[in-house]
Amino acid sequence: MADDPKDNDQQGEPEGRADIPRDPSGDPGFVSMEGPDVETPTGGAEDGFSPEDLSFLDDVSSGAATAETAPTEQVDEHLADLKRVTAEYANYRRRTEANRQVERDRAVGDVVKQLLPVLDDLDRAEKHGDLAEGGPLTTIASKLRTSVEKIGLVGFGVTGESFDPSQHEAIFQKANPAVSAPTVSDVVERGYRIGDVTLRVAKVVVDTPGD
């Protein structure tokens, strides 16, 4: 009676390994094992993890890593960054507000400049006594000056004050032994400003020290 091929296969199969997958190529020394598809980094330098990183990961996995256990240096660094960003934002807001105010003053000043010749005429009329109390122009002059003051217009240039090239334009100079420094002796036209914006410097006569 011929041997059954199945019996031969079973006789050649090592005990306990009947269900182990074989290499499709037929290599009897190949054994397939199940395992993870991706290897987990072991913490070596080639994996990019330092011992501190591994320690932190261990703390996270165990639930021991909390904000209270964070390194003091790291907390201080974050606080310093927060303070720096807050200060930069505050400075940015101040600069923005200051620039906005300057632009507003310039815009208002461009309009008010049209009224400066009228204010000059009122000053000349006052010097000549035409704005005496009860005069016909007194009320008009008072209302106009009050209105421009309300929008921020400020006049400057007074007889007797020290000469300041940034605020005064000297249209005439004369020696005066009574003064020890350049001094405004007469104001031809007052200067005006709105906020930090100078609309016009004052035109003045200057006394200079001399014999």
UniProtKB/TrEMBL annotation:
The ranges of region (Disordered) come to 1-78
Keyword Chaperone annotated: yes
Entry-linked InterPro entries:
GrpE, GrpE_CC, GrpE_head
* Secretion signal, residue range per the UniProt entry: none
Biased segments, Basic and acidic residues type:
1-25
Q: Which UniProt keywords apply?
A: Chaperone, Cytoplasm, Stress response
Main localization of the protein described in the UniProt heading: cytoplasm
What top-level branch of life does the organism fall under? Bacteria
Where is the protein found, in the record's own terms? Answer: Cytoplasm
- Known Gene3D superfamilies for this protein? 3.90.20.20, Head domain of nucleotide exchange factor GrpE
What's its job?
Participates actively in the response to hyperosmotic and heat shock by preventing the aggregation of stress-denatured proteins, in association with DnaK and GrpE. It is the nucleotide exchange factor for DnaK and may function as a thermosensor. Unfolded proteins bind initially to DnaJ; upon interaction with the DnaJ-bound protein, DnaK hydrolyzes its bound ATP, resulting in the formation of a stable complex. GrpE releases ADP from DnaK; ATP binding to DnaK triggers the release of the substrate protein, thus completing the reaction cycle.
Stated family:
Belongs to the GrpE family.
Record HAMAP family:
GrpE (MF_01151)
Please describe the quaternary structure of this protein: Homodimer.
Give the matching PANTHER family: GRPE PROTEIN, GRPE PROTEIN HOMOLOG, MITOCHONDRIAL
Its protein name is Protein GrpE
According to its UniProt entry, this protein's organism is: Naasia aerilata
Q: Which gene encodes it?
A: grpE
